[in-house]
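pipeline/complex-builder :: batch 7 item 3
reading input block
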Amino acid sequence: MTCTEFLKILDDVLDESIAVETRTEIELHLRQCGHCEVVLNTTRKTIEIFQCNEVYELPTEVSERLHSTIMEKCKKVR
Amino acid sequence: MSTIQPIAGQDEQHPDVALVERVRAGDVGAYDTLVRKYERQIFRIAQHITQNREDAEDVMQDAFLKAYEKLDQFQGNSKFYTWLVRIAVNESLMRLRKRRTGKLVSMDEDVQTDEGSVPRDFADWAPNPEQNYTQAELAEILRKTIQGLPQGFRVVFVLRDVEGLSTEETAETLGLSVPAVKSRLLRARLQLRERLTRYFGRKTPAIAPAAAAPNGDGAEA
């Protein structure tokens, strides 16, 4: 497996949707290629960081405002 | 923070369906429960698309009201959450269009770039590099990093990786094909990785350790 081939299936590797027979090829490539190993690990970590940390937090006052407006308008609609 | 939910079996009813039925029967309080459940996700999506706090607040409110008004059109063959996300994405794009005085806004904007589609920086990261920053510093880094992505990539990444939609749901929500979503997701992930490496990458020492050793000129005092 070449680096280009690895990169093409990187998403499937990250999403763990790789066919069993390809896994051995990938493991072999990663053992030989430090660059691809770094790309895989740091891309995985990139996703994890964005999943685990709030980029935009909903302020409490915005949430409260939303509820009072929604409830008021919903009662009128139905 | 991830919103990935357990996939209910075919015969198993998603808890949202029961709430939707209660709302349809006139229980407004049940709708408040749905709003509380998804307000943070909808706000985040709206912020990521509009890049503006006031617009995001308006979009969130409009999306929840529209969903309430159109609840009879919700078929129940898709998840309530993905249906709601679709409404929020459309509202966000409409809001952008208004701000740009009618200029067409589409998911294809700026996606022709090749930037970052091939990794260039291979510096490894320290284990848990985010721990070197305060929560506020980290949020700022993540905001700056994701704001720099072309919109068509950013939205795909947010829906698929942050908000937990499947590739198929993301494609349906954005009106894109599954291959287009997959291609954009890969490029978004690689571009974000490249940008975060600037903050989290281990720095290669500029001077070889032997040359950097103290030489007795008192500099280390």
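note: The CA atoms of residues 21 and 41 of chain B lie 22 Å apart.
queue -> next item
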